[in-house]
Input
Amino acid sequence: MDDHGNVILDLDLFAQTTELFERKKSSFAAEVLQGLAHSVISKAVSLTASTPVGGKYIAPADRLEMFCTHLLNDDPDAALSMIQKERRDGLSARDIYFGYISGSAQKLGRMWEEDEASFSQVTSASGYLYALMRALRPVGRDATPGAPGRKHALFCTVPGENHSLGVSMAADLFRRQGWDIDLKLGLSHNELLDQIAVGKPEIVGLSFSNPERLSDLTQLCVSIRLSLPHTLIVVAGPAVVDADQLQQVTDVDLVFTDVDEAEQQLARLMHMRGRD
Output
């Protein structure tokens, strides 16, 4: 994240992710939204956890205060304009992460704990931070989790899912097509994140068949995006799952019900992102 030229601020992705997070607010109960907000803030705060104090950029107090005010006041355009100006003035993506994303997350977390900001305000603010973390992305092949041409995928069931036949069939299909496949069944949310963080797969395939597990799927997708933002996330579900509706609330790249078409669709997505 140090190279100014190789990291762009994708404005379209920021807008799309902001809209996606807004739809989550109207689709899930308060406790689910609280979990999502907590995940975003915790991840943002942890960005500086292992960095020596002298090795991280600290945003000027007045600028950070203004940035947080924009986030809390539902003014993402103003917050984004601040980041754009900082980038134009030469601030690296790494410094944006440390100074503004992590700095504001720490401040928002304190305000939440001390009731200085409402649940609704912090939820919206965390959504904008999530969108910013997604929008600051490397360009070119450096964006891939692994080496060019690497074909490594992890297939798993969404926590709480009992049906694994579909994802097992998909994993077997991809294995026959020459993919290096990890198949994980019955793991918890944190156990899956640990496996994904270690393997850094190009693709994470999730089995989803029970609409009651939608909040678990959404939470897992957000966590994966925060840990490995450029990994492709695909969902395998039965024909009764509305693919468009699913993509309206979950941050996934592809929903498929026919495993015979999945490999071709994923190859197209990977080619578009320079991963073949």
